[in-house]
Amino acid sequence: MSHSSPADRALTAPGRFVALMLVVTIVGLGLDHYATLPWQYALSACAWLILIAACVPLTGDERARVAVVVLVATIGEIVASVILGIYTYRLGNLPLFVPPGHGIVYLTGLRLSQTRWPIRHPGRFVVIAGIGLWTWGLLGLSGVLGRYDVAGAIGCAVLTAFLIWGRGRQVYAGVFVVVAILEIYGTSIGTWFWKPEIPGIGMPNGNPPSGVASGYALFDIAALTFGVALAGLTRRVARRPKPVLLAEGEEPA
To answer: Using an 8 Å Cβ cutoff, are 70 and 102 in contact?
Structure first.
């Protein structure tokens, strides 16, 4: 009988994976709080290695979905942070740990939805996530969190639609929980900072916005839509016969 290693169990058992990734995220962001740019590069390399290791047990289709999430999320980061300036990072750059971080967050939310209680009570899990979402959203609208968070409330409405009608409702609920922990922690230690208003339109915005997890629902839709196509393309390329190189003057068999 084969015995899996502790590392294998940590990467394949949903509960252990969630606990491990939350610890890694909290420790990594905590270290980045004190890091200069060269040390941030080192942390970014670690983040990429962690994402690659997390993808090892996955199927080809699952890896393709993670790749699409990372790609789409990175484009979103460039637009929202670098171009529009809706939020900024501590050193004024786009840290290189952000793209793999999106993949890690997505996988952590996915694995959270696959733990024992959400599997047994999927409807309750979604409802509890929705209650948490709108508790945060209404507090943001009331201003008791220090800002009026209108942008977050719009995000709450979008995410609620996914929680009600989406194909992956449990995944969206899991991602919401993980993103809420990440955003509250990351903004509290100053890793990134959301502007009080959306630049150009003046819409009040929270730090963090309550509905920020709605973006991950869009990332997941992109992953489901394009991930299968990417996986199929990868398989076709892998099966393509390689050309045989002939020596000069040699005739093909």
So the answer is: yes
